[in-house]
C-alpha cells in the first residue's frame, strides 16, 4: 500500500469515526458501516449481520438484496463463512467461490449470484463470547479480490464498527428502559386514581396482569394507557 493510499485510508476512517459517533441508532450505525466499506475496500457489495441471542444471526444492513440472499442461505442452514465467523470469532476468506470446497453447496449458489470473493470479519468488543456483536461481510464479483492490505483495512473497519454498534445497542436499551419506566409510572397513576390505591398496590396489579397474561409489563402499561383497560 502506497503512502497516498495510507493517507486516504486514514482520512476515510476519520470521517467514519465522526459519522458513527453521530449516528442516532443501531440501524443508522450499520448503514454507515456498509457504505464506508464500499468506499474503503475493494468490494462491490457489503453487509452486516448482528448476533441475536436465540436466533444466532439477523440481517442488519446490506448494500444490495443479493447480500441478503447470501446471508439467508447461511442462516437457514446454519452453515457457511458467516456462521463460522460468528461462532468462532475469526475471519473467513474465500478467494474464489468457484473453487472453495469448505461449503460447496453454498459456494455454488453464491457463485451463481455473481460473487467470487468473500471476506467475513467478526465484530467483537472483547475476548468473551458474549462480546460478539456480529459479522461484517465483504463481497466481490472478482476472484482473489482481497489481499493482505484489504484484510488489514477490513479489520480496522470491523474494530470501529464493533464499538459503535455495541454503544448504539446499549444506548437504545437504556432508552427503552427509560421509556418503559415512564409508561409503567403513567399506568400506575391511572390505577391509583381509578381504584384509590397507593403506588405499591398499583404496581402489584400491573405485575399480576403481566404474569397472568404472559405479557411484558411495558406492554400491559401501554395497553392500559391506550384503552384505559387492563388486558384480559
UniProtKB/TrEMBL annotation:
<feature type="domain" description="ANTAR">
    <location>
        <begin position="164"/>
        <end position="225"/>
    </location>
</feature>
<keyword id="KW-0805">Transcription regulation</keyword>
<dbReference type="InterPro" id="IPR011006">
    <property type="entry name" value="CheY-like_superfamily"/>
</dbReference>
<dbReference type="InterPro" id="IPR003018">
    <property type="entry name" value="GAF"/>
</dbReference>
<keyword id="KW-0808">Transferase</keyword>
<dbReference type="InterPro" id="IPR029016">
    <property type="entry name" value="GAF-like_dom_sf"/>
</dbReference>
<keyword id="KW-0804">Transcription</keyword>
<keyword id="KW-0418">Kinase</keyword>
<dbReference type="InterPro" id="IPR005561">
    <property type="entry name" value="ANTAR"/>
</dbReference>
<dbReference type="InterPro" id="IPR012074">
    <property type="entry name" value="GAF_ANTAR"/>
</dbReference>
<dbReference type="InterPro" id="IPR036388">
    <property type="entry name" value="WH-like_DNA-bd_sf"/>
</dbReference>
<dbReference type="Pfam" id="PF03861">
    <property type="entry name" value="ANTAR"/>
</dbReference>
<protein>
    <submittedName>
        <fullName>GAF and ANTAR domain-containing protein</fullName>
    </submittedName>
</protein>
<dbReference type="Pfam" id="PF01590">
    <property type="entry name" value="GAF"/>
</dbReference>
